[in-house]
Amino acid sequence: MNRRGRRGIAESAEKGRIMPDASNRSDTWVYLLGAVLGICAGVLDVEIGDLLLTALFVLASTMVLGGLRPAKPWRWTVTVAVFVPVVHLVAYVFLTKKPYRAQIYESFLGFLTGIAGAYGGAVVRRVWGQLARG
């Protein structure tokens, strides 16, 4: 503990220097939802093989997650988009679905649409909060 003690931290928090946790809610269920949506996106990409449909699904999924928890929206991109190449790998090893080289590279494009969706959802949530207050 520093020499200011607890009172100094409380005073700093009142002045806005330390951002207190507004709510002690857990993000575990949001991470689980992101993992489920990511697995769905991977299965969609393996079964249908349409890059545009997969990209739109990742975009919509990360937009919803970014709207639910707008703090640090990059984590929703990672949570959802990482499962698309992972599902491709699992399908290759266990289901003997052999993707061609372009499909492997395409599976990483979910990160691009995921970034747009997560940050878009976070911005919409913050703007909606400002409009609701004022």
Brief sketch in words of this structure:
With 134 residues, the protein is an all-alpha fold. It contains seven helices and no strands. α2 crosses α5 (83-94).
Give a structural overview.
The chain is mainly α and 134 residues long. It has one domain (26-133). Helix content is 74%, strand content 0%. It is elongated and about 55 Å long.
Count up the helices. 7
Overall tally of structural domains: 1
Instruction: Determine the fraction of residues in helical runs and give it as a percent range.
Output: over 70%
Please give the alpha-carbon distance between the first and last residues.
39 Å
Structural class: mainly alpha
The largest sheet is: none
What is the mean pLDDT? 85
Features:
single chain, 134 residues, mainly alpha, 7 helices, 74% helix
Task: Describe the protein's topology.
Blueprint: H1 5-15, H2 28-47, H3 51-68, H4 74-81, H5 83-94, H6 101-106, H7 110-133
